[in-house]
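Please review the protein record below. Let me know how this chain folds according to its tokens.
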Amino acid sequence: MEAWIHWMLHPGAGAPKATVWIRLMAGWVFFWEGMIKFVFVNQGVGRFTKLGMPMPETLAPAIAVLEIVGGLALIVGFLTRPFALLFIGEMIVAILSTKISLYLGTSPLALPPVPPQTGFWAVMHEWRSDIAQLACSLFLLLEGPGPWSLDAALLSSAEQSPPRVTRLPRNEEEVSSGRRHAATP
């Protein structure tokens, strides 16, 4: 578990510099989708109510805040992997709660204005932004934020700081020689 937490919070430098474009695109979309949930009730509480989500008056604003804060975090590359994981979960729920009923023709939401309105082709058309956000989030989870990110800058800064002292010196000799044992990662 400790290794997993370390992996989530300490991204490597393996992702290419161009990862910034994935972060900007995904973060921008999540940010504005969150804003829309507050500005237009039919996209927030109203939509969650129609879909039968539990506690829509609480859940819709909570998801909106997640999208706004998480979107901004992706844009700057801060806590990228944890937010990517949350967004993967959100997109899976969004796809399952809206696209299955669209496929079956039983969606409580308004149907697309022009054909295809239900069935396979309607789902293929309507889920394009959902699947793109899911794919971007999955990429960011697996690859990390890239070198042009706040995560990478913070990690670089932490690596350049002096080692932590893990114990006090045992005797006068260690005190006079200035030896301290540094923490090992």
Remarks:
- The chain has one domain: 2-177.
- Residues 80-104 form the longest helix (25 residues).
- Residues 2-177 form one domain.
- The mean pLDDT is 86.
